[in-house]
Design brief:
- There is one protein chain.
- The protein has 155 residues and is of the alpha+beta class.
- It has one domain: 2-Layer Sandwich (Yope Regulator, Chain: A).
- It contains four helices and eight strands.
- It has helices spanning 2-20, 31-40, 95-104, 132-152, and strands spanning 23-24, 46-49, 55-61, 64-74, 77-86, 109-112, 118-125, 130-131.
- The strands form two sheets. Strands 2-3-4-5-7-6 form a six-stranded antiparallel sheet. A two-stranded antiparallel ribbon has the order 1-8.
- A hairpin with a 5-residue loop joins β6 (109-112) and β7.
- α2 packs across α4.
- The radius of gyration is 18 Å and the shape is globular.
Length: 155
């Protein structure tokens, strides 16, 4: 009987998780949809605007502030988003070191800015439609990548 109750509880909890996932329409996401998913995962999320008038979100993970930029916007809906964080370093990073990250990692890329400081980015394509669960997966990948990158660059 106890096993049946545990199985029933597990089924209910899985159902609740699946019920929370909802489809996002073709054509991308809105800043508000991304904010809702970030906040549901416990992250702060503040809407802003980038230099050309597209939405931007300011958030943080692992003690690091980052931005989410929106691309391919028609009205409020945008076809892709890009997570971006730049790290100001005391010593310039080398191209060999950044290239090592790009050789070894799949879901993000790094480069050096004009001051030879490392920048980490990750794109998420949502043009053909997605679910909030897929968006959560992108956020989780970013949240795992930032501390790994901090360790990699000795930040």
């Amino acid at each position: 009987m106890r096993g049946l109750m545990i199985a029933a509880g597990l089924a209910l909890s899985l159902g609740a998780t699946q019920a929370q996932a909802r489809p996002l329409p073709a054509g991308g996401v809105t800043a508000q949809e991304v904010i809702e998913v970030l906040q549901a995962k416990g992250y702060r999320a503040q809407e802003d605007e980038d230099g050309i008038g597209d939405p931007m979100i300011r958030s943080a993970t692992d003690g690091v502030n980052y931005n989410i930029y929106f691309y391919g916007c028609e009205g409020a809906r945008c076809t892709s988003i890009q997570f971006t964080v730049a790290f100001g370093m005391n010593e310039p990073m080398t191209l060999d070191r950044i290239n090592a990250w790009n050789r070894e990692m799949r879901f993000s890329r790094a480069y050096l800015d004009d001051e030879m400081d490392p920048v980490l980015e990750m794109d998420v394509d949502l043009e053909r439609g997605a679910t909030t669960e897929q968006l959560e997966s992108g956020i989780d990948a970013w949240a795992a990548g930032v501390p790994a990158f901090k360790t990699f660059i000795d930040f």
